Amino acid sequence: MKRAFVTGITGQDGYYLTRLLLEKGYDVQGIVRRTSSMTRRRIDQLKDEMPECADRITMQYGDVTDAAGLIRVVMELEPDEIYNLAAQSHVRVSFDKPAYTQSANADGCLNLLEAVRLLNQRKPVRFYQASTSEMFGGLPETVPQSEQTRFHPRSPYATAKVAAFHHTVNYREAYGLFACNGILFNHESPLRGENFVTRKITLAAARIKEGLQSELSLGNLDALRDWGYAADYVEAMWMMMQQDDPDDFVIATGVSHSVREFLEEAFSRVGLDYQDYLRIDQKYFRPTEVEQLCGDPSKARDVLGWEPKTDFYQLVQLMVDHDCEVAKHERLYEDIRGQVEARETWR
Ligand code: NAP
Ligand code: G4F
Fold it and tell me: Which atom of ligand 2 is nearest the CA belonging to 293?
């Protein structure tokens, strides 16, 4: 049985990648940060969905900023494949927390590469780095972006990810490691964090429809993103790790849409006009914006045989459907709580 070690296992991609690896028969080991409240919602959901595989997921405390801890755990577990998904992944937040973002996103990758280098002296191990389209910066003359496009990072998040990208290439060249970068464009799902724009919109549409929310505050609606489905994208991660030689790949749909289009599409699915509920709030704008991302995934198609299976409209639909169910449950809960409170007031 192959063993995979996954950092960032509690995140969106952590859920979909772990699900894929379990389906493929892997033993999956992950690290989770120690927090005072338990935040393993997605992994707990996965264990419920795949009870027959639950004993093949193991988690222990760890943090990618703790180099010594990473070396200990990697040398103890001796995984065959290591996926570094851990990051402070919110671009807007990175402007407020630049040093921490650098530490988790750049130094964290380097710490893990050192552990990989040590283990590789004992047994072969493969390394995947979660690189990102944010590294391109979205300048108009660079569209569509491919593996050849130069980087022009426009946030502390992106500058840290560029450093991690180069650390990964350098360890591949310097030590002959099997280390690859997946340069993934935005990918979303019903399990996307609630403060990324797509999920914020689909949850708002569903909650407004149920009478649980009255307005939606957003920032820049003109930014263009190449949005795909996370479940499709983790397949590309795994495929990169099965190649004879390590390399870097752009993973994207090749089609972009604006935030406004996503908004229109999501609200129309629940029969609402977004303009009746939208408020523009300056706090959601970024000091420097990435205006246009659109990837060229031809290398991934030609070399890996990877293609996205889910288009923009299917993605919006599946996220809206999921969040309508969430909102219905919230509404039910509110109604029951209201009835209990009314009864207590009467007493
Ligand atoms: P996510 O949902 O925000 O998950 C991030 C994960 O990293 C969480 O499990 C988080 O743990 C963990 N983490 C954060 N800081 C850590 C630290 N210091 N030590 C250990 N774990 C830490 O992000 P995602 O969407 O799944 O993305 C996965 C990776 O792909 C990230 O590196 C992201 O930058 C990159 N990426 C994402 C996209 C996208 O569109 N989704 C595109 C390109 C690249 P907690 O649960 O404790 O917070
Ligand atoms: O959903 P977002 O926060 O995603 P962003 O900044 O593109 O970053 C995501 O994708 C990257 C890949 O390209 C990943 F590397 C990264 O980890 C993350 O997963 O914002 C998308 C767009 C931006 O242009 C933003 O300015 O939506 C715009 N936006 C407008 N109003 C908003 C909002 N974004 C957020 N989060 N919240 C808003 O209210």
Answer: 13
Within a domain: 331: no
pLDDT digits (tens, 9 = 90+) for 40-60: 999 999 999 999 999 999 999
Tell me whether residue 284 is in a domain: no
Q: Is 15 a catalytic residue?
A: no
**Which residues form ligand 2's pocket by a CB distance below 6 Å?**
89, 91-92, 132-134, 185-186, 195-197, 200, 218-220, 223, 225, 259, 284, 286, 289, 293
Q: What is the pLDDT of residue 8?
A: 98
Work out the average pLDDT over 57-66: 97
Residue 347 pLDDT: 61
Closest ligand (CA of 69): 1
Q: How many domains does the chain have?
A: 1
146, part of any domain: yes
Classified as helix, coil or strand, 35 is coil
Res. 346: pLDDT tops 70: no
Please give the DSSP secondary-structure letter assigned to residue 190: T
CATH number of the domain encompassing residue 17: 3.40.50.720
The answer, yes or no, to whether residue 341 has pLDDT greater than 90, is: no
pTM above 0.90?
yes
∠ CA 169-16-290, rounded to 5°: 55
Task: Output the CA–CA distances (angstroms, integers) from residue 100 to 32, 104, 168, 206, 219, in the order listed.
Answer: 17, 6, 20, 34, 24
